[in-house]
């Protein structure tokens, strides 16, 4: 029983800088790949309408900056996400290593009700490039360890697997929406006076 | 790299900053305020350590970290030295060509290791290849991120925001030059450590961008990565950080592109600095620019230069400058700030500003306020004072000048300070009628040396008799006016201008010092001849009849040119 019917799916794309987050989104929404090498400031989103199982849904895809300083944007933009897309660059091992911290960061900041069941999708991008540093097997192992996250190998440049990946993302997001529990608490911002755990508010809100 | 003039400019700036630290900041900020709509009060705290220190109170999350040379600690020379190792390494051509330098993350473990080593203060063998270019670049970037006060300082942040709003480099070259000047001034206000490090960093980024074809990092790209670290205060909310980063990155990009130019000194500022030294040099002729210009020595040479003072009083640059400043304030858009400025202005000038202009400060244009001013004047005349309208009277009004306490002034009829004195012309008029029959003598003109109130009838009579074509307003005006008119009629004084006519309007300010100046600088020899007790020939006839009553002026003291500077008076 869906407790909330909405046809808008909020999807967040996360990953290190220059793994191809913006390119993936552009390839999927605009079917274009630009060879430009542009850093993203903060976050931006594009929307795309698609049909999933005879149902028309609007997907709002949030592209975020991979830059450290913008990670604090998280709280503002992660909340209310229906699905989180983690991206790494198959030619850059470091981007794979930081997946854990991206995932944790998201779960902390978006604070969904059931973190272990929140839908993630992993994309290994730039498969058109050589040499490969992260094998598909290694990526899949990581996915299994995280409650069987779906994994796709994509190339934003060549449009490889992008459509399929985003369809899966939409399905996962919908499935989550149709499940019996809400993703988030009714009042996500409620203040618990007894709550000693600091919601990793990055400590910057100190009044001084 | 730098041209010779740049070097000398830098030297002058360094010297000036050392010699007159306070004035240095005042001047730079003043120049900056010409370019920007600055709230000066807020900006006053820029060079103060106190405020900067406040932000060294690191947020709790950072405080828990180990106190170290580079991480999360305020900028120190030691930290800069450590960081410089990274900069040098990255500058090597092979490294700087790496694709995505500064953008790619590198290995987080290695970065932590590198940070640890830097914090230990140890020398790094970066050439060995243990750490990749991206590791080093990320650590360098992280260093700027971890500075509790951003490198361009938090106090300047609002100024940068304003610059971003005001100037768009894409619009015109003029905008670009103004943007450049504003940035040059802002960088001058930076603490020297910050400035040095910024110079190194901008140079590195500039070189990075010059290899864009290899590393794909354009100035814009680099600016996007560095703007939040270099400029944005650490306590911005995410949404504001996002907005601000988007509007500010073009400034950082501009700085990367023009990294050499932004450290040059604006020529106008150099002029001011030089002027200051020049002044100093004049006051202490023994010493020269290259020698120490300690304040002590110059006091020996402090004296009043009559020649200069007279000149000064003639052209009255202070007055003109004040008038310009006042006009500028008047033309500002209506705001609380303007009111504040007007208020401040009045306060500084002993409330000498015409009262009505404060009241009518809603008048946007100077023209309007001048009209209003004149209009009021007319009103005032009709109301209380038996003064006749005169074109001369209004011509004196041409400047809406705030009156300083200087003795020589342009006077407005409605000036509140002057109102009480308006009775004098009245009295003149009475005197005129009373003493109509009297035949006056030209020598009575020499009453100029007496306090104004004492005697004036003689001159008025003279005007009536000998200079009938002169506008009557002159009688309402001032003694010296008449005197001058009279003299000029005899070709004794060749100059006569409206400015001069208003010269001594404020009679009570017209003291003997001024007379001395006047005599010294302006009066011709033939006049001096008169003043020395010899009467102009053509006046002899009338004179005889007034012999007994005549005021006699005898020179008492003479200056080095043989001109009298003090007179003895007698009847």
TrEMBL record, chain A:
InterPro entries: P-loop_NTPase (IPR027417), Small_GTP-bd (IPR005225), Small_GTPase (IPR001806). CDD domains: Rab7. Gene3D superfamilies: P-loop containing nucleotide triphosphate hydrolases. One of its GO terms (cellular component) is phagocytic vesicle. PROSITE patterns: RAB (PS51419), RAS (PS51421), RHO (PS51420). The keyword Cell wall biogenesis/degradation does not apply. NCBIfam families: small_GTP. Belongs to the small GTPase superfamily. Rab family. This is Uncharacterized protein.
Automatic annotation (TrEMBL), chain B:
It holds the Pfam family RhoGAP. The keyword Plastid does not apply. GO terms for molecular function: GTPase activator activity. GO terms for cellular component: cytoplasm. Gene3D superfamilies: Rho GTPase activation protein. Residues 64-263 form the Rho-GAP domain. Keywords: GTPase activation. One of its GO terms (biological process) is regulation of small GTPase mediated signal transduction. The keyword NAD does not apply. This is Rho-GAP domain-containing protein. It comes from Psylliodes chrysocephalus.
